[in-house]
Amino acid sequence: MKDILGPVAALLHDVLPGWVLLPNLTFALPHTMYWLGLLLFPPLAMYLVKRAERTEQRRISAPISYLLWVWGGFAGLHRFYLRSIPAGLVYVVLFVLVLLGNSIGTDARNVSSGFDNQLRVAEFMVARHQKAVDKGRSGAAEKLESAIAERDAVMPEVDEARLELARWRSFSGGIFALVVAMLVVDAFRIPSLIRRCEALERDVPDTADAEIMERGVKADIRQQISTPLIRLIDQIGGYSGQFVAYWSVLAVFVYYYEVIARYVFNSPTNWAHESMFLMFGMQYLLSGAYAFREGSHVRVDVIYERFSMRTRAMVDIGTSAIFFLFTVTLIVTGFVFARDAVEVMEVSFTEWAIQYWPVKITFVIGGVLLLLQGIAKLMRDIIFVTQEQAA
User: Fold this and answer.
1) What's the pTM?
2) Which end of the chain is more exposed for a tag (fewer CB within 10 A), N or C?
């Protein structure tokens, strides 16, 4: 592949200006933007979803088209979304060429660095022997001549390695500039592409209302029991689950940025991974109540499923003591962790230095939400058993 693309790299290096290179991305996510994103994005997303459910939506969405243009334009995702397959494949080919150019350029950079080190060593030896010659030491002149010969021998290799590196930088930069130019053109063409796509799909039947197979899961009639307090707790648990569910969308954008920054622009981040594993940890804690409400926690129910509904309720009442012991322990220990973190305004030991105390506060919030949902579950079981006895 290097032999095939090498002439193209040399041609682009000779034709393009020296500043046509892949830019270095130095963006680091500000802490304020991170926390505001976690707080504000879920309500905005929920509002947009509910708005879409209330109104008749077009199959092809202009906001989604531009969103894909921004975040996936380098790979032609907006073109594939708009059913423009040939143009999308062109983007894919150019994207692969950029990756190949970066890969070969990385090897060229390593070679160039090796020759640069040899040149520095040779120049150091020349300067060292020159000092010895100046001091009139015997044999120093011969050593100086040998060091100069070694330096002169490595310099052509250094120049060739630097030229090879510059060629591949020009190659990746030139392809990148072409992709940017195509994206600029597509930014103005997206409305017409949307109209074209809608015309092509006008006669295609909508399968959004296709019949969905029902899950063969036995319904739990205890879920039908409701009181004002139970409904309030269910609403709180449901909202908390929906809230943190939209954080997963943020992970798509962050990891996409990390992949592009690392493999296209050779600029890996120091914050993407840390920001997401902290977010997933908070998501795990805050969504526990919702998962408990929906019966989604992992459990061994080989024997439990064979019980009658009344027996299940009685078993749940008896084992609830273990649940509440665990939940109260989580709240108490989480409160200690959170208090200590808030007192010192704890931050991570990484270069990004994100605040840890909001993360540890979610121990308490998640524990309280889980405790409330457990109370609602216990109330349902007690009401169900007493109603069965009365019947």
Assistant:
1) 0.77
2) C
